[in-house]
Amino acid sequence: MTDKDKLIAAKEQWAREGRGLTGAPASPSKRRLPPGQRETLDFPVLDLGDQPNLSTRDWSLSVGGMVDNPIRWDWRTFMAQPQTEIVTDIHCVTTWSRYDNTWAGVAARHLLQVVKPRPTAKFLLLRSYDGYTTNIPMARFDDDDVLLAHTWQGESLSREHGGPVRAMVPKLYFWKSAKWLRHITFSDRDTQGYWELRGYHDNADPWKEERYR
Ligand SMILES: Nc1nc2c(c(=O)[nH]1)N[C@H]1C(S)=C(S)[C@@H](COP(=O)(O)O)O[C@H]1N2
Ligand SMILES: [Mo]
What we know:
The chain is built from four helices and eleven strands. By secondary structure, the chain is α+β, with helices and mostly antiparallel strands. It has one domain: Sulfite Oxidase, Chain A, domain 2 (Alpha-Beta Complex). Strand 2 (about 60-65) and strand 3 (about 70-75) form a beta hairpin. The two termini are about 25 Å apart. The structure holds ligand MTE and molybdenum atom. Ligand MTE binds near residues 48, 132, 175 and 179. The site of the ligand Nc1nc2c(c(=O)[nH]1)N[C@H]1C(S)=C(S)[C@@H](COP(=O)(O)O)O[C@H]1N2 has 17 residues, from loops.
């Protein structure tokens, strides 16, 4: 097995064992830290081991499925959209949390205004340039802190952290925040993504400890 296969196998095993699950409520003195999490000051890199090397010229985002106005944005068009800045805490299912990350990019709510999902569209599937996929309920994507981010802490998002553009869905575990974002499909049906097919939760709310199914 390669290192990458070993890491994936280990994470599948943790999902089966329910690793990280405490069942405990968040302690009131640590309201900021969801149950079973601990704060880290560095910014670990986690992915499937294949980090696409995309210049902004190679990158584009397409959005389709149950929307009235499908789009394909190249870098220039993406950057011409209204820009938003947010500060978020990151909560990774592997139990690290990182506070106060400043992100800049295009708000999910702006994207929704542009593509106009049909009322029947209740689920999103995000697809990335490394083949990664993850599903997000519409109700969680349609939030004022969800961003398609190109900047972290004032710097262009690095390749290892998902540049040129990644999703940032602060209220869900970090695996929902797809790096190297390529495509979003809206659907009336929930299609599981890479980790969801391997035992991770469809909703992924850290405050409810929705780590695994
Ligand atoms: N495209 C892509 N996005 C991804 C992943 C991946 O393998 N590929 N891994 C996810 C997981 S499991 C985590 S914890 C975070 C890690 O993001 P980071 O490397 O910036 O810390 O990215 C998520 N987004
Ligand atoms: Mo993860």
